[in-house]
Specification:
There is one protein chain. The protein is an alpha+beta fold. It is built from 13 helices and 19 strands. The strands form five sheets. The protein has a six-stranded mixed β-sheet with strand order 10-11-12-15-16-19, sandwiched between helices. The chain is globular and about 65 Å long.
């Protein structure tokens, strides 16, 4: 069930930037697949502009004035020289992305210009412990047709061994930097059978030019609104009630308004226990994190100190107080994809001894950043950007979670056989901890994955 999110008109405004569209209907540049399109002199000049603008963003705003020992000017100068000899747009984007990746910072990365296509790989993988597994396969996809199955262990993707470090880089490459028409994967079944599969993606061409002035009768604007509403459906906050004993909140991201948080916690207060399922949650708005913590504690709580280049400021969650605070039992579920705000919350719960955290070690991607959006060009406008870390979050125990993550109070990992059988032993165990009865089979069926149609 969906709850209150950021108002629609604000999400539309943000999407206009993300889609790289000018109000006059200018055709965005860099719209062909990055790996295939050759470079013109104009494209190469734009690459230089992008690189230098992002250098300035980092030079002015990065939280560590020493840039972790990197000679920033020399490194960007070297990258600029490489752009002069790049053969494809993909290479230009890769050169820019590589410089930022060398900072080894989870929240500092390049956002390349969008493309006039959407790539759907039809399957999902995730680290469980120190191994990678297929956790979802889309019905009707090439992945399903080729025999890829939930519970298969992913050994390599495009020849690269998959572990906690390489998986994040592969996700960035395949989903953001340079989407591909398919992947060659080597997997191992729960029974130990190893096989190699060439799994093709579904690539949908989208419009290269949209009219957002309304002169087309508003058709393109309405299509944009429908797309946003469709994504809301895919990423809806859902909950499940077991009588008066338990409410399970499946939280896909920290993206709710204050009212949305209050609505969910009003439901939670009618139950004896609350399970916050933050598995797969990449984080989001700090404001939502603070609001939610204020509903879980009857006193103000220090989340940590935001350590910036020139100062350090405490991050405090103000209690909502009185009957607006949930006082029942609390269990937080995490996994290797729980990141940022979805790591800060469980760590605060641990430090304050407010409840239990179970599941897998989290992503270790906990910084505070701002996304800087830019554009280049006149008649043809190209939008691009970079996320730049502005603060490291130092927890009250003096430790940063970056590259470390949160170690759960109780480590519990589903096996390959349990994945294949769609059982969820983690959620079932959490229910048992608060005195509720929930089988792994029922737990596994509570929140089925939603696929883009």
């Amino acid at each position: 069930m969906a709850t209150n999110k950021t108002p629609l008109f604000l999400r539309i405004a943000a999407r206009l930037v993300v889609l790289a569209l000018a109000l006059g209907g200018a055709q965005p540049g860099f719209t062909a697949p990055a790996g295939a399109q050759t470079v013109s002199s104009i494209d190469r000049d734009r690459g230089h502009v992008m690189l230098m603008q992002i250098r300035d963003d980092i030079r002015k705003n990065y939280y560590d004035g020493a840039f972790h020992g990197m000679d920033l000017e020399a490194r960007f100068k070297a990258a600029d020289e490489k752009i002069k000899t790049a053969d494809t747009l993909g290479q230009i984007f890769g050169i820019i992305a590589q410089v930022l990746s060398e900072l080894n910072d989870s929240h500092t990365f390049f956002s390349p210009p969008p493309r006039a296509s959407r790539t759907d790989y039809g399957w999902q993988m995730e680290m469980i412990g120190e191994d990678c597994y297929v956790v979802a396969v889309k019905p009707g996809s090439d992945a399903e047709a080729k025999g890829l199955k939930v519970g298969d262990q992913v050994l390599t993707v495009a020849g690269f061994r998959v572990d906690r470090d390489t998986l994040g880089k592969l996700r960035y490459l395949y989903y953001t930097l340079r989407p591909q028409p398919g992947m060659r994967v080597v997997v191992k079944s729960p029974e130990g059978q190893q096989r190699q599969l060439d799994v093709m993606a579904k690539v949908t061409q989208t419009k290269r030019r949209l009219d957002l002035t309304g002169s087309d009768g508003g058709m393109d604007i309405m299509d944009l609104i429908r797309e946003i509403e469709g994504e809301d459906r895919l990423n809806a906050h859902r909950y499940y009630e077991l009588g008066d004993d338990l409410l399970v909140w499946k939280m896909p991201g920290f993206d709710l308004s204050d009212q949305g948080v209050d609505d969910m916690m009003n439901k939670a207060r009618k139950h004896k226990a609350l399970i916050l399922d933050l598995r797969g949650n990449p984080g989001g708005r700090v404001a939502m994190l603070l609001r939610l913590l204020g509903c879980l504690f009857d006193h103000d709580v220090k989340v940590g100190d935001a350590k910036r280049r020139k100062d350090s400021k405490p991050m405090i969650a103000k209690t909502r107080g009185g009957d607006r605070v949930f006082k029942g039992d609390l269990v937080v579920l995490v996994d290797s994809l729980s990141a940022s705000a979805a790591e800060l919350l469980p760590r605060v719960v641990q430090l304050e001894k407010r409840g239990k955290v179970i599941g897998d070690r989290t992503a270790g991607a906990v910084m505070e950043s701002i996304h800087y959006q830019h554009q280049t060009g006149a008649d043809t406008v190209v939008f691009y950007g970079a996320s730049v870390t502005e603060a490291d979050i130092i927890m009250p125990d003096g430790v940063s979670l970056e590259h470390t993550g949160v170690t759960p109070d109780e480590a519990l990992l589903p096996t390959a056989a349990e994945l294949a059988a769609k059982r969820d032993p983690v959620l079932a165990r959490a229910a048992t901890m608060v005195g509720a009865k929930l089988s792994p089979e029922k737990a596994g069926a509570m929140f089925p994955i939603e696929w883009r149609k």
